[in-house]
Amino acid sequence: MEDKEIIERIIKHGDTKCYAEIVKRYSGTIYSKVLRLVKQSL
Predict the structure, then answer these.
(1) Are 29 and 37 in contact (CB under 8 A)?
(2) pLDDT per residue of the chain (42 residues) written in tens, 0 to 9
(3) Rounded distance, CA 2 to CA 30, Å?
(4) In whole angstroms, what is the distance from residue 37 CA to residue 16 CA?
């Protein structure tokens, strides 16, 4: 399922399984970017 479809299901139906899928897909990427930003600010 594409991200757009997943987000629509989350918004329209409150589908928590879909929310978990989005978190699973992007949490590593977001964590890495935030970690890089924090290290740069130190």
Answers:
(1) no
(2) 999 999 999 999 999 999 999 999 999 999 999 999 999 988
(3) 19
(4) 29
d(C-alpha 36, C-alpha 25), whole Å: 19
Amino acid letter, residue 2: E
Within 13 A of 25's CA, how many CA atoms are on the CB side?
11
Write out the two tokens for 35.
């970690």
How far apart, in whole angstroms, are the C-alpha atoms of residue 9 and residue 29? Answer: 22
pTM of the full predicted structure? 0.70
